Structure formats: structure tokens, C-alpha cells
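ASSEMBLY PREDICTION REQUEST
Request ID: AP-0331
Submitted by: J.K., bench scientist
Number of chains: five
Total residues: 1770
Priority: normal
Notes: Please return the full assembly, not individual chains.
Input sequences:
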Amino acid sequence: MRTFGKNESNIGLAPGTLVHVGEKKAEKVVIKILAYNSEKLIEKKLETVEDCLAFKDQPDINLWINVDGLDRVDIIEKLGNYFNIHPLTLEDVLNTGQRPKTEDYESYIYTVLKMILLDTKKEEITLDQVSIILGPNYILSFQEREGDVFDPVRERFKNPASRLRKNGVDHLAYSLIDAIVDNYFLILEHFGEEIENLEEGLIIQPRPETLKAVQKYKRDMITLRKSVWPLRELINGLQRVESDLIKETTRIYLRDIYDHTIQVIDSVEDFRDILSSMVDIYLSSISYRMNDVMKVLTVIATIFIPLTFIAGVYGMNFEYMPELKWRWGYPAIMLAMSLIGVSMFAYFKKRRWV
Amino acid sequence: MRTFGKNESNIGLAPGTLVHVGEKKAEKVVIKILAYNSEKLIEKKLETVEDCLAFKDQPDINLWINVDGLDRVDIIEKLGNYFNIHPLTLEDVLNTGQRPKTEDYESYIYTVLKMILLDTKKEEITLDQVSIILGPNYILSFQEREGDVFDPVRERFKNPASRLRKNGVDHLAYSLIDAIVDNYFLILEHFGEEIENLEEGLIIQPRPETLKAVQKYKRDMITLRKSVWPLRELINGLQRVESDLIKETTRIYLRDIYDHTIQVIDSVEDFRDILSSMVDIYLSSISYRMNDVMKVLTVIATIFIPLTFIAGVYGMNFEYMPELKWRWGYPAIMLAMSLIGVSMFAYFKKRRWV
Amino acid sequence: MRTFGKNESNIGLAPGTLVHVGEKKAEKVVIKILAYNSEKLIEKKLETVEDCLAFKDQPDINLWINVDGLDRVDIIEKLGNYFNIHPLTLEDVLNTGQRPKTEDYESYIYTVLKMILLDTKKEEITLDQVSIILGPNYILSFQEREGDVFDPVRERFKNPASRLRKNGVDHLAYSLIDAIVDNYFLILEHFGEEIENLEEGLIIQPRPETLKAVQKYKRDMITLRKSVWPLRELINGLQRVESDLIKETTRIYLRDIYDHTIQVIDSVEDFRDILSSMVDIYLSSISYRMNDVMKVLTVIATIFIPLTFIAGVYGMNFEYMPELKWRWGYPAIMLAMSLIGVSMFAYFKKRRWV
Amino acid sequence: MRTFGKNESNIGLAPGTLVHVGEKKAEKVVIKILAYNSEKLIEKKLETVEDCLAFKDQPDINLWINVDGLDRVDIIEKLGNYFNIHPLTLEDVLNTGQRPKTEDYESYIYTVLKMILLDTKKEEITLDQVSIILGPNYILSFQEREGDVFDPVRERFKNPASRLRKNGVDHLAYSLIDAIVDNYFLILEHFGEEIENLEEGLIIQPRPETLKAVQKYKRDMITLRKSVWPLRELINGLQRVESDLIKETTRIYLRDIYDHTIQVIDSVEDFRDILSSMVDIYLSSISYRMNDVMKVLTVIATIFIPLTFIAGVYGMNFEYMPELKWRWGYPAIMLAMSLIGVSMFAYFKKRRWV
Amino acid sequence: MRTFGKNESNIGLAPGTLVHVGEKKAEKVVIKILAYNSEKLIEKKLETVEDCLAFKDQPDINLWINVDGLDRVDIIEKLGNYFNIHPLTLEDVLNTGQRPKTEDYESYIYTVLKMILLDTKKEEITLDQVSIILGPNYILSFQEREGDVFDPVRERFKNPASRLRKNGVDHLAYSLIDAIVDNYFLILEHFGEEIENLEEGLIIQPRPETLKAVQKYKRDMITLRKSVWPLRELINGLQRVESDLIKETTRIYLRDIYDHTIQVIDSVEDFRDILSSMVDIYLSSISYRMNDVMKVLTVIATIFIPLTFIAGVYGMNFEYMPELKWRWGYPAIMLAMSLIGVSMFAYFKKRRWV
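STATUS: Completed
Returned structure:
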């Protein structure tokens, strides 16, 4: 089971030592820069981290530097130095076992959350950590690898009239968080359908594979829950943070995400509830089917066992068995056996066993 | 399962873009106006949205404009402009995945809740979103389609002495919310009866169909719960909102709805409890019936299997089997077998298996 | 299942309309008056509601007017007018679907609670609503029909030295509530015994009827819980109400009821717990008994089926079966079969199946 | 099930009437007095309640009067009068259905709690109520009968250097409560062992008696819980009471009891958890054993039923059955049957049924 | 089950008496001293407790005295006297049944927590109590025996540039607590893997041993929970303690541990959830396998029992059974029986029983 928190490789290290802690997901580090204001928009992939200095501290220009891949500690350290990021923040950026949280470092606000990617083929979810550092006119975002849920945000940048372009970087921060939370709904919708299918199958044709799938989804829900529950607190923290970095207008938008977060939490809890009751339904369905099997066995056995006994009696080799000599003995006994069989069948019919 | 929240079509859109999000339930948009004070009452279906301007801002006239159908974004945008409604409110009106909530926009109070319609034939519930915008002397209400639970309110308007006519639009807002909450009781009563029937059937004749029905009602309860839980907070918010739009006298009436809301919540939780325990009862009932089946099999089999064995012994073809030659061998063995059979039956009788 | 809240007949009515809502339990209305102070005591059944005016507003006289039956709305309305009771209070008195609550109307305090009557023959509980209006020197109490739990209170009135006679009407109000809560203990004790019997039966002789009884008691507990939970808040409200109607000395006594209420709530929750686990015990007991049945079947079948096979072999009609000609063939095979039978029985004995 | 609260004999009585309510556990009342300061110690059994007056109000003497048995209401009333105890307190002392609580009467602090006595032979717990009245220089304690958990406290008195002797009566009150809470640990340890044994038996040899024992312990836990939960609040109350009767130094010691109380509560909840899951384990174990039984039946039946059929075929009496005449027919068919039997056995072996 | 709290040997003793309460885990007491500042580092094993005085109260030297083993009460008392430790603290140090907590004694802060050691061979966890006394320039730590989780901390001391060396003893205290909490993650990871294996086995091959293991892990989780839950409060207390002993910089680091603690708590709760549902899965798996067994039995029995009956019929010895004389009687009956057998098999195939 996925657990958050320190990994073995980290345990015992002095706090503050910069090491990438977590699964290696990306081979190399890609830095993309996006410099914008309402008039112009520059989008560029950086060759070296030093290239970003050209864009830094230009008046009236908002900067979004996105780093995909956390393996090159030196690059991240340099970037951190350029923007005066506290070592503890960088440590958190590199350790992908963070619980979603937001922390106010006065010159910037650090937010870390989990982006959920769904591999629909393998029916597997992956948790990627996204760190967002919101400064006065820049945003640094760090992801574990390329490929994210921010494409709609990037698309909106192309429209000069969009709020993203007209507002400051705090609106961009909001948009990124909003994109991550929006994506949760997609994941939940997918889970909703899968769980519904599962339940159908559970009643009709219960199999251990179904049970395994139920357990798998239960675990996924635990993973999701760990990512989503702290979000409520996080958004709350962002709304109430005493900092000029987040403007009043953006705070109203944050209220919207807060509503969404609660909806996500509610859904996760509902799914957990439903999944929990599924094991009981599985058991019930198996019992029901076993009952069916037992009825067939019982009907057949209770009809034929007495008849076989009767046949056995007249198969005995006693010398003095007068019935055996009778002319109508055989038809009479056949008739008697038929009557017994039919009446037993009728009895089971009445009890609705057949 | 029905989840609240953004739908796929909405994800990725810039916040504030007006699009109708949700299932299309109505073909066209119907606007009805009701202008009233204690002396007169005008009820009219509008041809175009511009017609409402004739009634707007007349002194001493309260206005209730009800819009059925959310597909014509242009109409709703126009109406919003006439009454100076904030774009974010209109966005919420159009997105039918809202969680019930109330928001104070100073010049008006926006309230959104869920009206539950029951299709008794299909045993299905539908959630329709109702948005109520309460201004100083007008109410705008938006529904997903025609057909609602407000007919008793409309009926009461015909009586000039009714409180509705004598009081302001805040009393109308209260009455509309009250009508929606009252309707929940009807739904709950219906569910109460259905669940009681289900439980009866569960004990007497457990079948997978019953289990399916239980699961269906469980889901309905989750849906209801999502609509009802936020209501408590909503009514609380309305009671405490610092706004002249809601008069002191109306706040007392809101306390009444608050009580009702808690009763609805309690009942929903009770139903959930009862439904949860039903799967266990189903399982118990199946086990009990299986036990019955097993007893029959066991009684028949354990009586006749030993007897068949005895018959088999005397059906053996050994040359030297003295019993076979005895004159009374056959009657003796028949008697012995009868005795064995009867005594085993008596034993089962004693153990209450037959 | 009993649900509180509006009934169908009431839904759609304008709030404030006086109609008796709820089951009709009494044929006619009986009004009894009890005028008392520490010196004298007058107890009388009133013919008409107007007769109470003779007692009203006499100096130094405390008045308790008890109304049994809620069908005559006119009588209750008149009485309300004499004592200046707010129409909303009268509406609540008449609607028997109230949640227990207390409301301060300044000139009087309105309290509504549920009296539980137990029909020990049918093992059924009935909830009767009791409304208590506590004024400066009068108490109006309304019940759904004659027959209540107040007889011990009435008895105590006969003693001029009793606190009831020496204290004001607030002490009477306390005594009435105390009598209702005390009665809950009787009900709970009865349930406690019934549930214990049930559990005994559940383990020894599980039957669907027992399961039905468990479900019935579960429902009763839900009903009780709905009546009892709000009591805590109610008593709290009475203790803290800022009103001269309840004297300091009486508030101390109310603390006592508060303790009792918590005890009742605790017991109800414990019973719910126990009842919930009973379905599991039922299932376990059935399984245990089924196991017993299966063991008998298995022992008999596994002993005799192989023996029957052997007998069958020597019942075959092959011409060349040398054993059949042997002098000691028959006794030898009988011995062999006995040995097999005995050793299998010993095996089952060892496994504790017999 | 043991429920706290009023007993039948008390219901209907005027509050404040002194009657011993509860089971009569002691035949007579024993009053013991212990007068002490750091220099001297007098321990005495009183003949009459008046004898205590000799010790009362002596300067620099702390007094502990312990009353065993609550049947002689007159004695308790007298004692109450000597020390100016409020009638409501005495009523609570006499009613053994109290919930543990502490009440500040300014001139003294009244504390009531439950002492748990374990009858290890019958495996039964008894709840005895202990009332402690802490005055400025005296403690009155009331128990339902002789025999308590205070012997270690009495032992410590003999040491003049002990804190008990050097501190005031508030330290004695603390020591008494501490002794009662300490005793809970003993009870819990006992239950812990019993429950562990039970669980072992549940998996190895599930029987209805074990289930009954589980239910019994569940009830005991409910009883314990009722005694322990209110303790937390009680100790809290004592720590924060605004009274000079409890000195600052003693309050620090009370913090210690608070910790213990939470440990007791935690353990009780854990035991409840474990006991709850035991019914499921019982059911699982039965099912597992039934599965075992079924496998034996199935293996034997499925091997021999087909063989018996074959034997039956060659037992038929058709005239033209060529096999019967063959020289090697019998050995051939025996071989065939052996092969069938062995291969079926191998199949079951492979499926791990044998 | 492991319960915290007083042990039998302690019950009845006067509070404050110094006795080692708990299991004896160490044979002798080992005292190690570590005196350090950023320039030098002295590490030494003390022969006698008096030797530590040489290091005490040296200016600019931080002292860490670690005591392994609690059996020599005299040594601990002496040490306590040297550093002016309150007797109540020493009592808590010696009683290993403490709940994790922190207490501010002004001149020092006392913290007690549980170190969890895992014996991977026996799959057993042991709880060792660690007491940390943080003074102005010293730390006293007490453990139940040698062998702990502090080795990485000791390793870091060797680096003169490490924060440990540069900061005061409060940073050391933080590091020790951090090491203990870090170790919880290792334990949890181990449990996570074991539980996952268990679950796999539960579905594929359910056995009572698996159930026993589940119960064992459940208990371990209860033990862990008891150690971890109070940690949250503990860290909170340390962060907010009004004392100069903990510097502002260290408090920031404590926030980090707080996050970790919540992660540990979450994981423990998740494991409990998963383990709880495992009993149900076990039951389901057994039922599924029983169903399998039953199907085999039913298929074999229902096919061959009727056929055996037919064979039995033609094994009867009636004189007048014309079929027996027919030339093709035998082949005809064999064909009929084959047809019956095949069609029944086909029927079961269709119902997916084979």
C-alpha cells in the first residue's frame, strides 16, 4: 500500500540535506518557462537553468517556471538560490512523500499537492507530487515527470483576453490548483462507473477476481483520500493566509475550489462506503448460489435414494420372497416407485425448490 | 452514481464562462412572471425576456420571475443583466452540479438547492436544481424544466389575505424553500414504506432481486443525503445573514425549516442504517433456508443409505449365505430395516430436524 | 417506520393555519383543572372551556389546566386566546409530529416532548406528544388522549406539605417532565429484559421470527432515540433560559433530569449496539447448527457409501468370481465391512464429529 | 443488562425523599472512624452514629468516617445533619443508580463513583457505588457494603511519614479515588487474559458457549464503560473546581489519575473492538470447519458413487450380458474400478481436498 | 494484550515511591555520556554515575547522558539528584507503562515516548519506553535496555559541521524524537508488506493460520495506535510550551515531526480498516471454496444416483421382468443411461457448475 512519509533511503539523514527521495519517475529534467502579461506571451524550453535569469525581475512580467523531473538536485538547488527559496522548502520539493499542505514563507507561499494520473489500461492510479511556489511575480512549479493536467491552463494563456493573462501570478496558482482538483472529478467519474459494473457482477456472478478488484479499489480510495482530505485544510489556509501575495479577488475563486474539494471528499467517502458493503454482498451472492446448488442435490438425492433402496430390497436373494413370484409384482413395484417419485417432486415444487 | 461537481464538458474551461453544464432536461425555456402586492396579483407567461422590464422597478410591486429550462444561455444572461446579477452567480445557476449553498452578494442573496422528484412508476428519483435569487423586491428562480413542487405556493397566492401576499419577497423565498423541504417528507414517507416491504420480503423469501433493490435504495439515500446535509448549513446561513433582504419575522419562520431539515437528515441516516443491516439479514435468511434444505437431505439420506446397504448385503451372490435359505429371513430383515428407519426418524424428530 | 415531521395532510398548507395534524387518537376533548396553593387544592373536570375563566387570574392560586385530545381545534384556540398564546405555539401543539424542543415566548415558555406508552400485550410502543405551556402562575398541558404518566404527580398534590404545593408552577413543570423521563426508565427496563430473552433464544434456537423481533426492537430504538436525543438540548435550554418563569431552585432540579436524560440516551445507544450485533449472532448460530447437520450426514454417508459399494461388488453376476464360491467368503466380507465401518467411526470420533 | 438510573421503587416519589434505592447488599450498617494527623492516628468502629461527635471539630485533626451499608436511612440522615450535608446530596448517596459525577456544594465537594468488584469464581463483576464527601477537615465515605479496595490506603496510614498523614483530607480523597481507578487496571488485566483465551478457543474449537461468553464480556464492557467514561469529566471537574478544599499540590496528583482514566477508557474501547470482531471470527471458524466436513463427504461420495453404479450395472439380471460370461470380466472390471478410484483420489489430492 | 498503565506490582503503593515498574528487560545499567560543542566531542561509557559530575556545568559544553536499563533505582535517583529532577519525574521514568506525554517542569522539560523495536524473525514488536529530560544544556535519556534507534543521530555527531553540533541540546532532543518517529515508518512499511501478503493468501488459500495472523496484526495495530495517538498532542505541546529551553528554530523543525506523526496515525488507521475487512474476506473466500466443493459433489451425485437407481431396478429378482429376456435389453438400457448422464452433464455445464 502506498504510504506517505519518509522512505527508507531518507531515514537517518540529517534534516535539510537535499536528496531526491521517492521513486525515480523521470530520466532527465525539463525546465519550461512562460513569461507573460496582458500584452505578450513568451513560452520557451530552457537549455540550462541559468537561462531563466534573463526573464527574472523584469518589470510587469509574470513568470511561470515549470520543472519536470526531480533527479537533478543541483538544478533545483540553483533555481532555489536564484529565487531565494528556503532549504527546507527545497527539501520538501524533493521528497515526494509530502502530505498536501501550504506554508507561508513571507517572501513566497509554498503549496504541495498530489496530481492523480490514471492509467486506464492497467486500471492503475499514480500519484505525482506537484509543488507550487508562489512569489510576488513568479511561480515555480515542480513535477515528478513530464505529462500533467495543466494543458487546459496553457491553452487559456493563448487568449490575451483571458483572466489568466489579465491577473497576476496568484490567479495562475489558483488555476493550477483548480486544474488538479478538476482532474479528481474525472478520476472519480471513472471509478464510479467501474464500481457500478463491479457491483452488478457481484450479484450475478460472484468470483474471487471480483473480490480482488473490490480490494484494489478500496486501496485506491485510501490513496485518494490521503491526497484529498488535507486539501480542505490547504485551501482554507490559502484563503486565510495573511499575505499580499494572494489578492482579494483570487480568494473568492479559492472559495469555489473549496466547494469542489468537499464534493470530492464526499464522493470518496461514499465510494468507500459502497466498496465496504460489497464484500457482504459478495458473500450473500455466494450463499445464494450455494443454496441453489444444494437444492438441486437435495431434490435429486431425496427422490432417488429411497427408490434405490426399494430396488435394492427386491434385488435381495432370499429364497422365500413371495412378491418375486407374483405375476404383477414387477409392474406393481414400478408403479409404486413412480408414485413415490412424483409425490416427492410435487412436494419440492410446493416448497419452491425446483 | 450521481456525483455533484463539475462535469466533463466543463473541465478545462476558464472559470466564469457561461455554459449550461449538466443533463439537458428541457427542450425550451419558459419564463413565468408573478407580480403581486396585497391588493393585486398578475400572473403571466412571458413571450420574450424583454417583457419582464415592464414589471421591473414598479413601486410597491413584488416580482417573482420563474425560469424553467436552462438551455438558452442568452436569455438567462439578459435577465441577469437586467437585475445586475454577478456572472459568477449566473455560472452557478447554469451548472446543475452545485452543492446546496447560500451566498450573500449584498444587492441580492443567492440560494441554490435540490428539488427531488419521484417517478413512482420507475421507482426513480431525479434531482432538479433550483436557484433562488432574492433581491429587494424581486425573486428570480431558475429550474431545470417545467413541473415543480411550488403549486401549493401558487395556490396560496390567490388568497389576498394570505401571509404571502401581505409580506415581502423574503417570505416568498421562505415559502419556496419550505415547499422543497416539505416535499422531502413525501419522498421519505414513500421510501419508508418501500423499505419496510423490502425487509418483509428479505426475511420470508430472500432473492438477489431484493438485494439489488436494497443497493438501489442505498444509492438513493446517498443522493438524498448529499442534497439534504448542506441544507442545514444553508438555512443557518440564511438565518444569520447580515442583510436587510431578510426581515426579522421571516427569520423566525426559517427556524421552522431548520427543525424540518434536521428531521429529514435524521430519517435519511436512519434509513441508511436500516438498509445497511439488510444485507446481513439477507445473508441470514439465505443461511436459514439452506439449513432447512440441508436438514431434508440429511434426514432422507441418513435413513435410507444404511437400509440400502443392508439390502445390498443380501443381494450379494455368495453361495454360502445361510440367512438366504431361512424361511423367515426375508420378513425378519424387513422388520429389522423398518425398526432402524423408524428409530432414526424418531431421533431426528427429537432433534427437531423434521 | 414512524417519522417525525409534517404529514401529508399538512403539506402545502400556509404556515400558521390551525389544523390537528397527526393520527386521531381521542374521540372527545377532556379538560381538567387543578387550582392549588399550599393551603387549598381544587380538582375539577370542566364542562366547557369557558369555565376555566373563573379560576384564571386569582391571586396566589396556581393553575394547571390539562387538555386530553387535540381534535377540537376551536376549544384549543379559545384557551389559547384566554392565555394570550401565540398562534405559532398553538400550531405546534396541534401538530403531533414535533421534535422535542423548548421555546421562550417571554410571557410563557413552550415545551413539547414525547410520552412513551407501552402496550405490553402487543409489545408495541406508542408516542404521545405532550405540550407544556409554563406561564407566570399557570400551566397548560396538552395531550393526545386520556391516560398518561402523571398520576404519581397528581397523587403528590394531595399532600399539602409536598414541594409541589409549596413551590410555584415551574416546579410543577419540572415534575411533569421528570415523570415523563422517569417513565423512559420503565420502558428501557422492559426492553432490556426482552432483548436479553431474545439473545438467549438467538443462540439456542435461531428462527426467522427471532430475527423479525430483533428488527422490530431496532425500529423501536430508533423511535425512542428520536424522542430522547433532543431532550438533552431541551433540558439544557430550560436550565439556561433567561426568564423569571423558572426559579433558581427549580434549575437545580433540572440538572437532575439532565443526568437522567444522558443515562437514557446511553442505554438506548447500548441497546442499539446489542441489537446490531444480534443479526451476526443469529447467522453464527444458524451456521453452527448447519455444521451439526452436515456432520451427521457426512458421518452416515461416508461410513455406508463405501460399504454399499463392496456389497454391490459381490452382487455382480459375473460367472467367474471365485470368492463367491469360497466357504468363508461371506463371513470374511462381513468382517471386513465391519472393520471398515468401525475404523471410520473411530476416525470421526477422533475428529469430534460424533 | 445493568442500567443506571432510577429504579422502579423510586419512580413516582417526590424528589428529595430519602429512601435507599437499589439492591440491598448489606445486612447492617458499619461505621468506622479514622482520626489522624502527622502525630497520631486513631482507628475505631463506632457503636452509634452519635459517637462521631466526639471527634468532630477537634483542631488539627483530620477525620475519615466510612459508612458500609446504606440501609439505615436514619443513621445516614443523622450523620448528614451533623456535617450540614444538603438533603439532595444524601438522596444521591442513597440512590445507587448514580452516574459518576462531582458536585461542588461550597462547604463540601460531593463525588460519587463506581467501585468494581470481581468475583473470579463466577466470572462476574459487581458495581458498588462509593460516595465521597470532602469537607474542610473531614471525609465522609459511603459504600454499599463492607469489603472494598481501600485496604492499601489504610495500610499506608500506619506510616507516620507517609504523605497521607502529612497532607490534608484532600490528599485522602485523592488516594481513595486513585485506589478505585487502580483497581480498574486489575479488572482490565483479568479481562484481557480471559478475552485472549476466548479468542484462541474461537479459532480452534468454535462452540456456542464461546459465543455466549463473548456476549457476556461485551455486556461487562458496557457496564465498565458506563462507570469509566464519566470519570474523565469527574477528574477534570475536581482539578478545575474553584474551591479551597482541594489544594494546589493535590491537583497535580489528580492529573496523574486523569492519565490513568484515559488509559482505562482506551483499554475498554479496545476490548469492545476486539469482542465485536470475535463474532465474525466465530462465524469464519465454523465455516472453515464446515468446509472441512464437506470436503470429506464430497471426496468419499464422489469416489464411491460412480463405482457403486458400475457394480450395480453388473448386478443387473439381463440374460444377454456377454461381459458376465468372459473369463477375465471380473478382474478387468475390478481393475477399471480401482483405476477410477485412484485417479479421482489423485484429482482431489491435487485440489488439496485431502 | 499489552495495556499501558500501572502493573500489579505497583498497585497499592504510595504515589512517589521509586520502584522500577514493568518487565525487566536489561540485566545491568549502562551509562554513556556525550559532551559536545561545535569544536570538540567526547564520547565515553561511565563506570560509576558519579563520573558524570566531571562534565556537568562546564561552560559551553552540551551534555547528553544516556542510561540503558532501569533496574538500578539507586543510580537513577543519584542522577536525578545531580540534575535536580523532581521525584514525580523519576517515578514516571521508572514506570514503563506511561502514555506518551510531555510535561514542563520549568527547569527542564520531561518527554516520554515509545520506541518500537521489530523482531522480524518472530514477527513481534516490542515497545520500549524512552524518557527524555531536556535541561538548559543537558539531555538525560533513559531507555529500558541497550540497542535503540539513535545510531544515525550518533553518526551525525561525528560531523563537526552538522546542525546537531552547531545547535543546542533542544536540537538534539528534536533529533531523538525524530529518530523514533522515523523508525515508525520502517515498522509501518514492514507491516504494509506483511498485510498485503496476508490478503493475497486470504483470497487464494484461506486458512485458520491466516486468520490468526490477521488477529495478531490487529493487536499490533492497537499497540502502535496507543503509542502514536498521544504523539500528536505531545509534539503540539512541545511546539507551544512557554519555555526558553526550546528555541524558535527548533520549533520549526518540530512542525515537521508533527506532519510525520499525522502520516503515521493515518497509516495505522488505514491498516486497522484493512485488517478489519479481512475477516469478511476470509469468510467470503471460504464460502466460495465451499461452493466449489458442493458443486463437485452435486454434479457427481446427481448424475450417478439416478443411474444407480436404474441399474438397481434391473438387478431386481422378479420372475416376470420381460425386458431382461430381450435380446437388446442390455445395450438399450446402457444407451439410455449414457444419454441421461450426458444430458445432465450438459445441464450442469450450462449452469457453469463444471
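REVIEWER COMMENTS: Residues 30-284 of chain C form a domain with the Beta Polymerase; domain 2 fold (CATH 3.30.460.20).
SIGN-OFF: pending second reviewer
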